[in-house]
Design a protein that fits this description.
Shape: elongated
Low-confidence stretches: 238-243, 405-409, 501-506, 512-521
Structural class: alpha+beta
Number of strands: 24
Mean pLDDT: 76
Largest sheet: 6 strands, antiparallel
Number of helices: 23
Length: about 900
């Protein structure tokens, strides 16, 4: 193989790989691929083996780029089929390609996608026809390029092929002249019908459904309101209660959608009701107060039927309360009230859905579902589609597509999409009706239409190939005769036989060949430019589409962020005109959508708007962000707001307004809690000081006096003679009583404030407390100390000592423990105290119980010093209390 042939082969292989990475979208993911053009060129110019290699490489590129596995398999099979037959006999490979697609390729594509896609799907037929047309058209283009290549004197010598037939050349050109314009028109027709026709038909059908459904639902509701209005007019003419009751009962019997109905007089008391007895409580409905003065005044002022928010009835159906005022000569006599069951609306919507092949949902003012044609929608729940994509078609209609079908492919997602329109039921009623027309039916009809178009294209293609073959054969008949006439010419001349030359046909055919060669060269150049331009256009369109998708996704994400943003965001120009707004601030301005295009002076008060104007000027002049706060009075107190103004280009700023009222209140609450904590520490210190003072007074004063009395009794006892036995006995009893009193005084003084805590420190006080606990309770108690020489500041030592006291007291009262372990150490600048027992354990409810003041006291003591306390326990496995307090003072 020459160097030029190698370069040409590499160029054709690269062209096949590149062409399969550049696709021409036809319909959904049905793309036209052009890699087989170069594969057929390689088969024609370099043989079967290189053609198979090129087909495998180009198919792999299409698989990795777009996941077109079926197209790749068919391309390799087509190359093997055509290449093998070309090796056996030289013939037109366009007809070989058409034979392959009709007999093998199209059935294989249909079988592959029939097994992969759901039963009854139209896509296998579409893909089958598309691949057939694509493959045959690529073979036709390749045949044209081969003919042009072989007719080029400078290129034909680098391949093993040296010639082409005139018949094949004519047949290929004729087929191309018919098929290429037809294929172009078919592609344009399919894309135009797909883009526009579906949306137009859906909007027209929604117009018809809206016209019918809105009147139907409104008529149903008007019938119920007519019953109430007629009853209200009749109630004004009945003077006695009996007449009212009979009339109410008749209305309730005639309309089963009315669950309850009654008449309430001007005092708000029911005087007639049906049913007369409440089905839940069993109490009589007559004589009850149903309205207060405010409600009565509101009904009198309304002078028309008033509907309450929709609620759930005893049978779980949505119900609405209707109140109709009764007026006699302009005077308010009371009102007719009743409960209307909205189950009938769901029946109407279900019938509407069956008649018009749609879905219908009725929402109340809070956008809760109160009636639906599909029983799967949860009644009285917020209407939520749970994601999906929305494409706005016009001001009133949009198309919704689910995200959950993304993995199944675009056709499957479109099949589960809906064209949606949302309308308000009437100007007086804030209920909204949502109508959804499924897109799947139109997609099926459109698929059928495209199948017919492509089938027609296949039929025309086959007829064109057959016709072009016959016409080419006819046009090449004179050349065939010339060849027969010149066969064995030397023998004929040497034998002097008469030669039957065609009359003047040789010159005309020669001139035709020369002219056609020039035209072919010109066409080749133009076709190359067109192909290059077409590829560039496809690449640019693909890049633009990707950019648009990224932009749309970014806009959607930005809109989602704005929707979830708790603040109010405004884009304002220098004249304080609101250009765009997102978010909502209920206690400051109307909904965000209602202030776009207005100036800040129309939304805020004059002082606030003036302040905004000055800050906007400051931000634009300085080019830096400006932040300020202001306060507005509200129904429940002052509302505080923080505003940030960020300058943009073109004399515009972004204003971000945040309600910081809760932050202000939280800060005030934190400061108040901080003050209470400082006050608690101060009171605790004062109490400890008072305890120490009292303990010292008891020990020093009362203890010394009692000791002196004990010495005096001893002195008196020594000076009695033996005859004063009764006095000696009394003195001994007084001494014993005095000794007990001295011990009690010492115990009380120690419990108030152990002298060890002040004199010897926390460690000695802990050891003494553990010893006293064991003596009093008999429960073994072990104290684990890391060091005996730890020095702890007096107030901090007092807090730890009191926590230990309270923990041991809880063990005595509640734990039923047989062993207690206490650990005290210093670690990482923290004093760690841990008290563990093997008692019955503490539960989570006991930790948070109303009587757990001891636990709260221990937690508060630890918190006062910036420490923490954790309590853990399991029933039957004991309780552990861990306290950690900083060794040194830190900011509280």
């Amino acid at each position: 193989m020459s160097r030029g042939a190698k370069l040409l082969l590499v160029a054709l292989v690269c062209g096949a790989v590149t062409a399969n990475c550049l696709r021409l979208p036809l319909y959904f993911k049905l793309d036209l691929l052009f890699g087989s053009i170069f594969t057929m060129l390689v088969i024609q110019l370099f043989g079967f083996r290189w053609g198979i290699i090129t087909a495998v490489l180009s198919s792999a590129s299409a698989w990795f780029a777009f996941g077109h596995l079926s197209s790749g398999i068919n391309a390799v099979c087509e190359a093997a089929f055509v290449g093998y037959l070309l090796q056996k006999r030289e013939r037109g490979f366009v007809y070989l390609s058409a034979t392959y697609w009709i007999l093998l390729g199209m059935p294989l594509a249909w079988l592959y996608f029939t097994l992969r896609l759901p039963a009854g799907d139209d896509l296998p037929w579409l893909i089958m026809l598309k691949q057939g047309i694509n493959g045959i058209s690529n073979a036709l283009v390749a045949q044209l390029l081969v003919n042009l290549f072989l007719l080029s004197p400078g290129l034909s010598h680098i391949t093993h092929r040296r010639h082409t037939s005139f018949q094949q050349l004519i047949s290929t050109i004729l087929a191309a002249c018919v098929l290429f314009p037809l294929l172009t028109l078919t592609i344009l027709s399919i894309r135009e019908e797909f883009e526009d026709e579906m949306a137009v038909q859906a909007i027209r059908e929604l117009d018809r459904v809206v016209a019918h459904s809105q009147g139907t639902v409104q008529a149903w509701l008007n019938e119920r309101l007519a019953d109430f209005n007629s009853l209200a007019q009749l109630q004004s003419s009945f003077a006695n209660v009996a007449g009212k009751r009979i009339n109410i009962h008749q209305i309730n019997e005639l309309d089963r959608n009315i669950v309850q109905i009654g008449f309430i007089d001007r005092r708000g008391i029911s005087i007639a009701f049906d049913p007369p007895v409440d089905m839940v409580t069993g109490r009589a409905n007559v004589g009850l107060r149903f309205a207060d003065t405010a409600k009565l005044k509101a009904l009198h002022a309304a002078a028309k039927p008033v509907l309450s928010p929709v609620t759930r009835g005893l049978d779980q159906h949505p119900q609405v309360v209707v109140n109709v005022p009764v007026l006699t000569a302009g005077k308010f006599q009371g009102f007719v009230t009743g409960v209307v069951d909205l189950q009938g609306v769901s029946g109407l919507l279900s019938q509407l859905a069956r008649d018009w092949s749609c879905r219908a949902i009725l929402l109340d003012s809070q956008r809760r579902i109160i009636a639906a044609s599909d029983a799967s929608w949860p009644l009285l729940e917020k209407f939520d589609r749970h994601g999906g994509r929305i494409a706005q078609l016009n001001d009133a209609t949009y198309r919704w597509s689910p995200d959950s079908m993304e993995a199944s492919g675009q056709p499957e997602r479109w099949r589960h999409s809906y064209y949606v329109r949302e309308i308000q039921l009437s100007p007086d009623i804030s209920w909204r009706l949502i109508l959804e027309v499924p897109q799947g039916q139109r997609l099926h009809a459109l698929n059928q239409l495209f199948i017919k178009d492509l089938f027609f294209m296949i039929v025309v293609t086959m007829l064109t190939l057959v016709g072009s073959h016959l016409i080419g054969k006819r046009l090449a008949l004179s050349l065939e005769r010339l060849r027969n006439a010149t066969t064995g010419l030397p023998d004929t001349v040497s034998s002097q036989k008469k030669i039957d030359w065609p009359v003047s046909h040789i010159a005309e055919i020669d001139s035709l060949i020369t002219n056609f060669r020039n035209v072919a060269a010109s066409l080749s150049e133009k076709f190359g430019e067109l192909s290059a331009g077409n590829r560039e256009l496809c690449r640019e369109n693909q890049e633009r589409r990707k950019a648009e998708e990224k932009l749309g996704q970014a806009v959607s994400e930005l809109m989602a962020i704005f929707q979830a943003f708790p603040d109010l965001c405004l884009v304002v120009d220098r004249e304080t005109t609101v250009l765009d707004c997102r978010g909502r601030m209920h206690d400051m301005i109307p909904p965000a959508g209602g202030i776009a295009g207005k100036r800040l002076t129309e939304t805020f008060s004059r002082d606030v708007a003036a302040r905004y104007g000055g800050k906007v000027e400051q931000a634009l002049d300085s080019g830096a962000m400006v932040t300020f706060e202001y306060c507005l009075p509200g129904d429940t107190g002052d509302n505080h707001f923080e505003t940030r103004i960020v300058p943009l280009a073109r004399d515009q700023v972004v204003i971000i307004i945040r309600n910081i009222t809760d932050l202000k209140k939280a800060e005030e609450l934190r400061l108040a809690n901080e003050q209470l904590r400082h006050l608690s520490m101060y009171i605790e210190d004062a109490r400890e000081n008072e305890r120490a003072c009292i303990a010292r007074e008891i020990h020093d004063e009362l203890g010394q006096q009692l000791t002196a009395l004990r010495f005096d009794l001893g002195w008196i006892s020594k000076r009695l003679d033996g005859t004063q036995v009764h006095v000696a006995s009394r003195i001994a009893e007084m001494a014993r009583l005095l000794d007990g009193t001295i011990k009690s005084v010492r115990r009380i003084a120690t419990e108030l404030r152990p002298r060890l805590l002040d004199d010897l420190g926390l460690v000695a006080a802990l050891e003494w407390q553990v010893s006293e606990f064991t003596k009093r309770t008999g429960i073994p108690c072990e104290l684990q100390l890391e060091r005996n020489d730890m020095v702890v500041e007096r107030r901090r030592a007092t807090a730890l000592y009191r926590i230990l006291q309270e923990a041991l007291t809880n063990i005595i009262r509640h734990a039923q423990a047989s062993r207690v372990t206490i650990a005290f150490r210093e670690e990482g600048g923290m004093l760690l105290l841990q008290v563990m027992d093997n008692g019955k354990g503490i539960s989570a409810g006991q930790m948070k119980g109303e009587s757990s003041f001891g636990m709260l006291g221990m937690q508060e003591r630890a918190r006062e010093w910036g420490g923490t306390m954790m309590v853990s326990g399991e029933p039957g496995r004991g309780t552990s209390i861990s306290v950690a307090i900083p060794l040194e003072d830190k900011e509280l």
